[in-house]
Design a protein that fits this description.
Distance between the termini: 72 Å
Largest sheet: 7 strands, mixed
Number of strands: 22
Number of helices: 14
Radius of gyration: 23 Å
Helix content: 25-40%
Bound molecules: NADPH dihydro-nicotinamide-adenine-dinucleotide phosphate
Shape: globular
């Protein structure tokens, strides 16, 4: 019988024992998977100190040399896809195919960010003074704290560490309590490629202790966080004393607008896929639909059938299922509460609407709710589960007003065959991303950023890369 693994923090290039531990369980069946450090303030301090000690030598390396380590990590990831994907499925619950996509995408992302090494550019600015040259340099910020969610835990490591490291920063990562195992696996690959010690560190534990210690430290120069609005706001308050730079991705309530002239086959297929991927636990998947009255009945009927046909269960025991469990009991209870409240307020249950009793795990039935209204919580709060609420509208104008009336502003989508409608929606929808005739999966060369409470700053592409730098303007009279 194999023993339950006990992980160690990765600090200053070494795996270090912890005094106390947390247990990690499989959300599909409750099995105990591992014990991971419940780090204390002194562990966090040690990791921050290591990252500070390493930053000068790391920043002094040519960017192309820093990037070579990212490429080596990408290669090691590709050598280990099945094992890494299995680990993600075990602790997070996503289906194996998606876990493999996540692992491969992570490797591609590291390679993509490595390509920026020779493209980091400053500026030469015209001076008012004779003989003077003004230079704008780009420099690393120093030490980054990367605080991770559980929904794409492996990819999020790369999304934070790759731009941080290629621009010359060092990093301390805190994985989610729910999904730390894959982060320790990542740390082992980092060790194998010989990354200089202290450049990449991992400390696990609770947000309330480890997260608080990291985000309140005066020796951390930037906090890069993905997670909930409530936690983002807490982090902002905690960082205020040091005025630490923040990069916050705080989720969404993505509206999908389906117009009367839409290709309904496409809209149903794309919105359903977006609602069940990762069991609906994605910041940019369709969280609410506004469908034009002329096609509303047909859309609701087709969507109900499509969602009802979704298969779900324990992804390792039943590899063919389309959907795994929700992450934990709190997630399951939240989805159940929101659906119950919506039905109580008059929403019509088309399919689903209950916890799926499989005898194990946190499974919720794929659910469609019709007849929703803007005043219902289900149309305003992030569900983070396989539940699609639908509201009927009479025009694109009405849909745009409703879409924009949200605390969130991360992603949005529009289904139409009319270029004029699509362009008008793009002009008038106040969101960081808009997909036309498709759903989520942003490109690594794009810029994933939201407005309103969806966050501050963004990730990916050139603009995401430069978030990890500060400028220095040099007035050179020589
Ligand atoms: P949280 O935002 O609470 O957690 C995300 C990360 O922040 C975890 O690593 C967590 O630690 C850490 N954290 C928690 N409290 C603090 C703190 N005070 N200081 C620093 N770090 C902290 O999300 P939940 O896991 O509780 O999920 C709740 C909801 O958040 C979801 O239902 C969903 O609506 C939203 N969410 C959005 C995501 C997105 O992609 N934007 C991703 C995940 C969640 P730990 O969990 O280890 O204690």
């Amino acid at each position: 019988m194999s023993q339950t693994p006990t992980h160690q923090n990765y600090i200053n290039g070494a795996f270090i024992d912890a005094v106390e531990h947390l247990e990690v369980h499989n959300p599909a069946n409750g099995a105990l998977l591992s014990r991971v450090p419940e780090s204390r303030a002194e562990d966090v301090e040690r990791a921050i100190a290591a990252a500070n000690d390493a930053k000068k030598a790391w920043a002094a390396l040519p960017a192309v040399e820093r990037a070579s380590y990212l490429r080596k990590i990408a290669t090691r990831i590709r050598d280990n896809v099945p094992a890494l994907a299995r680990m993600i499925t075990e602790e997070q619950g996503k289906v194996s195919g998606l876990a493999e996509v996540e692992v491969n995408f992570t490797a591609d992302y590291l390679d993509y960010m490595a390509e920026w090494a020779r493209r980091i550019e400053g500026e030469v600015i015209e001076s008012d003074r004779p003989g003077e040259t003004i230079l704008m340099l780009r420099k690393p910020l120093g030490v980054v704290a990367g605080i991770l969610p559980w929904n794409f835990p492996f990819f999020l490591i790369a999304r934070k560490m790759a731009p941080a490291l290629v621009t010359g920063n060092t990093i301390v990562i805190k994985p989610s309590e729910e999904t730390p195992n894959n982060c320790f696996a990542f740390a082992r690959l980092v060790e194998e490629v010989g990354l200089p010690k202290g450049v990449f560190n991992v400390v696990s534990g609770a947000g309330a202790s480890v997260g608080q210690a990291l985000t309140g430290s005066s020796r951390v120069d930037m906090i890069s966080f993905t997670g909930s609005v409530a936690t983002g706001s807490r982090i902002m308050a905690n960082a205020a004393g040091n005025l630490t730079k923040l990069n916050l991705e705080l989720g969404g309530k993505a509206p999908a607008i389906v117009l009367g002239d839409a290709d309904l086959d496409l809209a149903v297929k794309a919105i359903r896929a977006s609602r069940i991927i990762n069991t609906g636990q994605v910041c940019n998947c369709a969280e609410r639909v506004y469908v034009e009255r002329t096609v509303a009945d047909e859309f609701v009927t087709r969507m109900g059938k499509a969602m009802a046909a979704t298969t779900f269960g324990d992804p390792l025991a039943q590899p063919d299922v389309e959907m795994g469990p929700l992450i934990n009991r709190a997630g399951l209870d939240k989805v159940g509460r929101m659906v119950k409240a919506a039905v109580g307020e008059g929403a019509e249950l088309i399919t689903g609407g209950a916890v799926a009793d499989l005898g194990h795990g946190f499974h919720y039935q794929p659910t469609v709710l019709a007849g929703c209204r803007a005043d219902m919580g289900i149309m305003r709060q992030e569900i983070f589960g396989p539940v699609l609420p639908i509201q009927v509208v009479d025009s694109l104008d009405e849909a745009i007003v409703l879409a924009n009336d949200s605390d969130y502003g991360l992603t949005s989508s529009v289904y139409t065959r009319s270029l004029a409608n699509a362009m008008r929606a793009c002009r008038e929808i106040d969101y960081g991303e808009t997909y036309i005739n498709r759903e989520n999966f942003e490109a690594m060369q794009g810029y994933h950023a939201g407005v309103r409470k969806s966050g501050i700053g963004g990730a990916d592409g050139k603009h995401g890369l430069y978030e990890y730098t500060h400028t220095q303007v040099v007035y050179l009279e020589a």
